[in-house]
Amino acid sequence: MKSEHIDRPAILAEVNAAFYRYEKALITNDTVVLDELFWHDPRTVRYGAGENLYGIEEIREFRASRPSQGLDRELQNTVITTFGDDMAIASTEFRREGSDKVGRQMQTWVKMPSGWRIVAAHVSLMV
Fold first, then answer.
1. Per residue in 41-75, pLDDT tens?
2. Distance between CA 3 and CA 84 in Å, rounded?
3. Which residues neighbour 107 within 8 Å (Cβ) at sequence distance 6 or greater?
4. What is the rounded CA–CA span in Å between residue 74 and residue 113?
5. Torsions phi, psi for 60 (to 5 deg)
6. Rounded-to-integer distance, Cα 89 and Cα 64, Å
7. Phi, psi (5° rounding) for residue 30?
8. Among 47, 61, 29, 51, which Cα is nearest to 108's?
9. How far apart are CA 119 and CA 29, in angstroms?
10. What is the pTM of this model?
11. Least confident of 2-16, 34-48, 64-78
């Protein structure tokens, strides 16, 4: 891929907006927005800190059953890179208040007819 197709400003702005919309929904437990921003497909994958979820239905079930308290976190070292007009990778580290652990999150975003959607995600904690 030619370098001029990486991080085009308009595309990068779109993905940043989607990423931070997801982050706001995550810390406020807005499950409607969280569900909207994942690809509604059985091939969607989300590896969590303690769970492996395959398909949008398992992801929805996880979101519905997780606690809605203590979700605030501080992001650091966030890197979002776009490739062409319809694919991006978002990587970030996070810390939660009262914890010394560093979390890591990676998301693969694809621009669908309905907008930017997460097609794969990975969340883990450093030990």
1. 999 999 998 999 999 999 999 999 988 777 899 99
2. 10
3. 19, 22, 89, 90, 91, 118, 120, 121, 122
4. 31
5. -60, -45
6. 26
7. -85, 85
8. 47
9. 20
10. 0.93
11. 64-78
Identify the pLDDT of residue 116.
Answer: 98
- Picking from 52, 58, 24, 37, the residue whose alpha carbon sits closest to that of residue 110 is 37
For strand 87-95 and strand 103-112, is the pairing parallel, antiparallel, or unpaired? antiparallel
Sheet of strand 103-112: strand arrangement: 52-54, 45-47, 115-125, 103-112, 87-95, 74-83
Q: Whats the size of the chain, residue-wise?
A: 127
In order of 13, 24, 94, the CA distances from 97 in angstroms are 29, 16, 10
If we measure between CA atoms, which residue out of 63, 45, 52 comes closest to residue 107?
A: 45
Alpha helices in the chain (DSSP H): 9-28, 31-37, 56-65
